[in-house]
Structures are given as C-alpha cells and as structure tokens.
Write a structure and sequence with these properties.
By secondary structure, this protein is an alpha+beta fold. The protein is built from 9 helices and 4 strands.
Length: about 220
C-alpha cells in the first residue's frame, strides 16, 4: 500500500529470544507485504535476558530456564507460532545479550541485513534449537546468510566484537530505560502528528487498527 501519504514510523522494541516477538513475525511479514512503502521500521534491542542471576519475569512467573519451556508452549498454543521449547530443558541459553549484539553488528551492513539476521536468529533459537548465546551459532548464521544474500560474514565477525557495536547496543538499552519499556514486543507507532504506544503481541487486525488510527490523524492534520 502506497497512497502518497507520509510513511508511518515504527520503533520496534524486541529481542532475538522473545517468543512473543517471534509470534509477531508472521504479522510483521504481512504488514511489510501490504504496506510496502507505508511503514518504516526501526529495531531497538531490549536485552531481555542479561543472565539468569538477574532475570525475573513476574508476569509469567519465570525465574529459571526450565520455566521458560511451558511459557514458550503457551505462546505456541495461543498464537499458532512454531516453537521448540525443548532448548530450555536441553541447552538453555545463558543470555540474550550476545544475540542482541549480533543484530547490531548485522545492522552495520544496512537495514535489510539487520532485518534478515534478526529473523535468522529468531528461527535459530525458536525452531532449530541453536544456542545463540554462544558465538559459534551466531557466526554460523552469518555464514548461512552470506550464501543466501551475500552477507559479509568476515565483516560481521569483526564488527561483533567492536566498540561501536557495543555502544550501539548500549544506546538501545538506554532508550528502553528512558521510555520505560519492560515488556517485549513494544511498539511506538508514529505519524507526523501523533504516536501510539502498543505494548505486547497483537494479531494482524488489531495492529492494523492502530496503523489506521495514526494514518487517519495524519491525513486529518
């Protein structure tokens, strides 16, 4: 959809290990198809799981890796998303920070590379049971993308440990704190005249209602 109206900007607060964000992936893909030039996305990595000593999710009563398995199963049943929760029993990731840093490293190669790498990281941990808290799987994904889309795996390897990428992720964490984002996914949907905050997963029809409200305000203004 591109009717000459200024595009809507969406800041998407997310994390590669966020199961609700993975469930939203089918919604986002459909939005990209139906609003081809009508939406501009910006990712902000949330650092969902710093480590298991400090992680707490009182909303879902999750305090240990094993407790995430039924939480992921609930997401799958609720949304129809394909999830293999057994990683949390067999090889639980220690942190989501390495995955977040990897997405920021991929972003150094452009928005399309960032988008593809984030999806690849989600697929890896959600369905392939790859532990993306380790460097090996993260580098493996870069190699796979180099074959698929010409992603520069060597540049990614260098960027992954760079100070610039570390600062880029730190800036995302600061933005989450400033905006008091504590639940993922969260979206700020902005037009020229108004913004709407959307907290948590939304199915396609409900998300379109938000887009339509912002577009209507934009046109009216």
């Amino acid at each position: 959809m591109n009717d000459g109206v200024a595009p809507i900007h969406i800041t998407y607060f997310t994390d590669p290990m966020c199961s609700w964000s993975w469930a939203f992936e089918s919604v986002r893909t459909r939005l990209q198809a139906e609003y081809v030039n009508g939406i501009e996305w910006r990712y902000c990595m949330g650092g969902l799981l710093p480590d298991w000593r400090s992680f707490r999710d009182p909303l879902q009563a999750v305090h240990t890796p094993a407790q995430l398995a039924p939480a992921w199963y609930h997401v799958a049943v609720s949304t129809g998303a394909t999830l293999d929760e057994s990683i949390w029993r067999d090889d639980p990731p220690a942190s989501s920070y390495p995955g977040c840093l990897a997405v920021k490293a991929a972003a150094r190669q452009g928005a399309a590379a960032e988008d593809r790498y984030l999806r690849a990281a989600r697929v890896a941990v959600m369905t392939r049971r790859l532990n993306i808290s380790r460097s090996g799987p993260l580098l493996q994904l870069a190699t796979e993308l180099s074959d698929e889309i010409g992603f520069d795996a060597d540049q990614f390897r260098r960027d992954l440990s760079s100070a610039d990428v570390a600062e880029s992720f730190a800036a995302d964490l600061r933005e989450c704190r400033v905006r008091q984002v504590g639940r993922f996914p969260t979206f700020i949907v902005s037009g020229p005249r108004c913004s709407r905050l959307v907290v948590g997963y939304r199915p396609f029809d409900m998300f379109v209602q938000v887009l339509d409200a912002v577009r209507a305000e934009t046109v009216a203004s």
